[in-house]
Design goal:
single chain; 327 residues; alpha/beta; TIM Barrel; DNA polymerase, domain 1; 11 helices; 38% helix
C-alpha cells in the first residue's frame, strides 16, 4: 500500500534532543493549510500515486490548535473528497480528550509516540514533554476509546527512538510488554537513532540497524510466540545480541528443551523452535491430522526456509542425517 506520510506543520515548540524539527534549530519551517493538504492528497489518490494517508504534525505554538488543524484536514478528506480508505492519524502530546475521540471517529488507526521507555529517559531527551501527563495519559485515553469499539479506529500504536536516551533493550522491551498488557497496544515500532546536525545529540554515534532489527524480532516473540519478557535473552549490559537472533539465543540457553518431536509436540513447544513461525506451526498441526512429517523434505514443503529448525527436531524419534548437534 502506497501511503502519503506527511507533516501538516514542521514547526514545533518541543525541544527533543534528537529531532530535526526541534525548537530553535535553524531549519526551514513551513506548513500546509488543511484545505491544501486535503486537496493534494485527493489529487495523488485519484491518479493512483497513494492509497492511504499517515498524518502527523509539529506542535507549532500550541498542541490543541495543531491537533484541530489535523482533524480538520482529515474531515475534508473524508467529507469533501469522500475518501473511505485507510488513514493513520497521530495524536499530539497535549491533545484534548474530545480531540482524541474525534480522531478515532475519522481514522482507522491512531497513535501517540512514547519515544522513550520511561520518565527518566524521556526527561534526558526533552525538557518540554512530561511522560505521564503529556503522553501516557493520552495513551490511556486512546486505549479506552479505541477498545470501546464504537468508532472507526480499531487499533493504536506507538514508537520508540532506539538509543537516543541511553536506554537498554531490556528497558524498551519491558515498556513495550507493559503497553501490550495494560494499554492493549496494537503494535510498537522501533526507530534507530541517527544524529542530526544542530541538535544536542549531533555528535553521538548512530545506532546500528541490527539493534533495531533485534527489537522487532523480540516484539514478534512477545506478540506472536507467547514469550514473556523473562524469557528474552539479554546480555550483561541489558542489550540483545547483535550476532544471534533472540529466539536462537534462548534455545541455546535451554538445550534441555530440545530436540522436540515434530509429530507430537504441542503448539507452544513448536513455537519455541528456531526457524518455525506461527504460520508454519499451524501448517504442521494441520498436516499431522492426515499424515506424519517424516523429515526435512516434508518440513520444507510447508516452509522452504524451515531448514534451521531441523537441528531442534526429531522426526518420529529420528534425527536428520545432516542434523548438527545442539551441543
Amino acid at each position: 500500500m502506497h501511503t502519503l506520510k506527511v507533516l501538516l506543520d514542521n514547526a514545533c515548540h518541543n525541544d527533543c534532543a534528537y529531532c530535526a524539527q526541534r525548537t530553535g534549530r535553524d531549519t526551514h519551517r513551513d506548513r500546509f493549510t488543511p484545505e491544501e493538504l486535503a486537496r493534494l492528497f485527493d489529487q495523488m489518490h485519484r491518479v493512483g500515486l497513494v492509497r492511504a494517508l499517515f498524518l502527523s504534525s509539529g506542535l507549532g505554538g500550541n498542541a490543541v490548535r495543531a491537533m484541530d488543524r489535523m482533524i480538520q484536514t482529515v474531515e475534508i478528506v473524508r467529507r469533501r473528497y469522500a475518501f473511505r480508505g485507510f488513514i493513520h492519524l497521530k495524536v499530539l502530546p497535549g491533545a484534548q480528550y474530545a480531540q482524541v475521540e474525534r480522531a478515532s471517529q475519522l481514522a482507522q488507526r491512531i497513535s501517540i509516540n512514547l519515544e522513550a521507555p520511561g520518565e527518566k529517559r524521556l526527561a534526558a531527551l526533552s525538557g518540554s514533554k512530561n511522560f505521564q501527563s503529556d503522553i501516557l495519559k493520552r495513551m490511556w485515553w486512546i486505549a479506552k476509546i479505541v477498545h470501546a469499539r464504537k468508532f472507526l479506529a480499531k487499533g493504536h500504536t506507538t514508537q520508540f527512538v532506539v538509543g537516543a536516551g541511553g536506554e537498554s533493550d531490556r528497558e524498551i522491551t519491558q515498556a513495550a510488554s507493559r503497553l501490550y498488557k495494560d494499554y492493549r497496544l496494537t503494535r510498537a515500532y522501533y526507530s534507530k537513532f541517527n544524529p542530526v546536525s544542530q541538535t544536542p545529540l549531533e555528535n553521538h554515534p548512530p545506532v546500528p540497524f541490527m539493534r533495531e532489527h533485534r527489537l522487532y524480532q523480540v516484539d514478534f516473540l512477545l506478540r506472536k510466540y507467547g514469550f514473556p519478557v523473562g524469557d528474552i535473552p539479554f546480555e550483561a549490559d541489558g542489550n540483545l545480541s547483535l550476532k544471534v537472533d533472540p529466539k536462537t539465543a534462548w534455545a541455546r540457553l535451554h538445550p534441555e528443551r530440545f530436540p522436540v518431536e515434530v509429530n507430537r509436540a504441542d503448539e507452544e513447544e513448536l513455537l519455541r523452535v528456531p526457524g518455525l513461525g506461527p504460520l508454519t506451526v499451524r501448517r504442521i498441526l494441520e498436516i499431522r491430522r492426515q499424515q506424519k512429517i517424516r523429515g526435512l523434505s516434508d518440513l520444507r514443503k510447508l516452509n522452504p526456509r524451515a531448514g534451521p529448525a531441523a537441528g531442534y527436531l526429531l522426526f518420529d524419534g529420528r534425527k536428520e542425517a545432516q542434523q548438527v548437534s545442539l551441543l
